[in-house]
């Protein structure tokens, strides 16, 4: 068999190598080109936050007051006769006020929120596969941003709750493809030494989007419909003004057998980074792709990747129940909702900083296990705190710390998944793991509806169980990013052989 990593001679000297090696030796692992590409592509995560978090403001229960002057106003309007109370800001302030989603109809609020996450779950699988196939990473990102803008604008015109829930489902469908396409497109042109730290930094933009949305929501608090128009406009601007300046992944070009296109991107990277790729140097895959392995079915057929995928799906599902649950739980906190959401966004940023720094020194496995177990412990302590006063403050602190650690776990699962699967199925794998997370997000509003200590109990159990399951994943620190299933299988054999030799004292 021909060694694709060695110089080849066919009339002229041609040195063939993989993307990682070319980035290390000639193009640069992380320079000006990758920084620009990272900044532009990661803006998509802010759009993701706009479409995901907007329901906290549009579906909240606004202030109300008794319209009659007789007697004291009770804590809830459910026992009052119709016409004896009214919404303080009018019926247009939220979907709850406009469609009367209170008292016995309160569960319908969770139904609309779950519809969004159900759409995200389905979209992650659909667009994960399209991103690995003919459409590509950039093509998929273009499509889902166009869908996001369209469905977001249409949501502002919803004539009824059921049309609203349907449009939220469709918005979730496209949103499910935004994050995973942007994440893989951002990380694939980065060298292995910098990939982990930079990959976690993409999530800063989700927090920035959350903070910006909470600030601008103050100016649209009078109309939930206006807020949907505002939150959808950035997707249209991203589509028209930013996407044309983003490059397709050289790894996707390579596995689609478009080597000349892949080399053009690598040449641009090298030129922008002040480096040079010598003549006669070309890209090659780390294995054969004649079997056209580009489906999630190929992942499930292989026992190694199948075990990894099932573990990661379950871990992300459990972590997402706690992560989204802790975010949505601010709707149950009787304080300023805009300030609470903003503080949640701010609280997530140190988690990203700490994750990026820790990934330089520690492996993915101990960090994933540690963060999820820590989050579980915090939620467990929070479940023991009942009542107001200092116990209420402790419960709030436990929730913030739990979200902090859960955010780190959310980060790490994305990085882990991208590194555990080869390029030909990477987006499909990330999409499937994202589906697991969105399944957890569908469950989260129902857990939040439980209220009180039991929501914290569920969050605690999910995080601890997920952390224990992460013990069974392999470490990926300083390991190569494979392009094909064959390359991954070869790498696994080499690691087993090396481990056996070290065990024998060789």
What would your notes on this structure say?
The protein is mainly alpha-helical and 506 residues long. It is 69% helix and 3% strand. The protein has 19 helices and 5 strands. The strands form 2 sheets. Strands 1-2-5 form a 3-stranded mixed beta sheet. Helix 6 (161-187) crosses helix 17. The chain is globular, with a radius of gyration of 24 Å.
Q: Major sheet, described briefly?
A: 3 strands, mixed
The ordered H/E elements are: EEHHEEHHHHHHHHHEHHHHHHHH
User: What is the residue-averaged pLDDT?
Assistant: 85
Stretches with pLDDT under 50, minimum 5 residues? 1-11
| Class inferred from helices and paired strands | mainly alpha
Approximate strand percentage: under 5%
Number of strands: 5
Q: Quick one: overall form?
A: globular
Radius of gyration: 24 Å
Distance between the first and last residues' Cα: 27 Å
Secondary structure: helix percent: 55-70%
- Order of strands in the sheet with the most strands? 1-2-5
- List the total number of helices: 19
Protein name: H(+)/Pi cotransporter
Organism: Dioscorea zingiberensis
InterPro entries: MFS_dom, MFS_sugar_transport-like, MFS_trans_sf, Sugar_transporter_CS
Transmembrane segments: 38-58, 114-131, 161-185, 197-220, 226-246, 309-331, 337-359, 390-416, 428-448, 454-473
């Amino acid at each position: 068999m021909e060694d694709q990593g060695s110089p080849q001679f066919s009339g002229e000297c041609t040195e063939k190598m993989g993307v990682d090696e070319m980035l290390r030796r000639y193009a640069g692992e992380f320079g000006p080109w990758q920084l620009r590409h990272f900044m532009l592509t990661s803006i998509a995560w802010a759009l993701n936050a706009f479409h995901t978090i907007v329901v906290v403001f549009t579906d909240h229960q606004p202030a109300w007051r008794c319209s009659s002057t007789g007697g004291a106003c009770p804590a809830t309007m459910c026992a009052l006769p119709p016409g004896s109370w009214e919404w303080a800001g009018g019926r247009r302030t939220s979907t709850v006020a406009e469609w009367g989603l209170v008292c016995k109809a309160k569960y319908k609020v969770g139904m609309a929120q779950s519809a969004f996450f159900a759409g995200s779950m389905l979209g992650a699988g659909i667009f994960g596969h399209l991103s690995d196939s003919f459409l590509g990473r950039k093509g998929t990102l273009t499509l889902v941003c166009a869908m996001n803008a369209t469905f977001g604008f249409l949501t502002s015109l919803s004539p009824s709750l059921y049309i609203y829930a349907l449009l939220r489902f469709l918005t979730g469908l496209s949103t499910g493809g935004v994050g995973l396409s942007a994440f893989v497109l951002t990380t694939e042109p980065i060298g292995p030494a910098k990939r982990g730290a930079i990959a976690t930094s993409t999530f800063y933009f989700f927090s920035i989007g959350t903070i910006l949305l909470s600030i601008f929501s103050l100016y649209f608090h009078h109309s939930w419909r206006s807020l949907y128009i505002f939150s959808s406009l950035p997707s249209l601007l991203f589509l028209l003004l930013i996407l044309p300046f983003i490059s397709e992944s050289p790894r996707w070009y390579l596995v689609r057998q478009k080597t000349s296109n892949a080399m053009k991107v690598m040449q641009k990277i090298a030129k922008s980074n002040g480096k040079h790729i010598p003549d006669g140097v070309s890209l090659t895959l780390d294995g054969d792709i004649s079997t056209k392995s580009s489906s999630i079915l190929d992942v499930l057929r292989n026992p190694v990747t199948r075990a990894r995928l099932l573990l990661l799906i379950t871990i992300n599902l459990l972590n997402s129940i706690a992560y989204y649950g802790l975010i949505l739980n601010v709707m149950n906190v009787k304080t300023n909702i805009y300030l609470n959401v903003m503080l949640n966004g701010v609280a997530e940023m140190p988690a990203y900083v700490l994750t990026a720094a820790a990934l330089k020194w520690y492996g993915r496995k101990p960090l994933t296990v540690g963060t999820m177990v820590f989050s579980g412990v915090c939620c467990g302590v929070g479940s023991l705190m009942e009542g107001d006063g200092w116990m209420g403050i402790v419960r709030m602190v436990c929730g913030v710390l739990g979200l902090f650690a859960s955010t780190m776990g959310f980060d790490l699962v994305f990085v882990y998944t991208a590194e555990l699967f080869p390029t030909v199925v990477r987006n499909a794998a990330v999409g499937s793991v994202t589906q697991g997370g969105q399944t957890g997000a569908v469950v989260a509003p129902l857990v939040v509806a439980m209220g009180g200590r039991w929501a914290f109990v569920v969050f605690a159990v999910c995080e601890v169980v997920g952390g224990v399951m992460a013990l069974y994943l392999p470490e990926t620190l300083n390991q190569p990013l494979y392009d094909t299933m064959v390359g991954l299988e070869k790498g696994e054999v080499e690691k087993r052989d090396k481990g056996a030799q070290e065990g024998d004292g060789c």
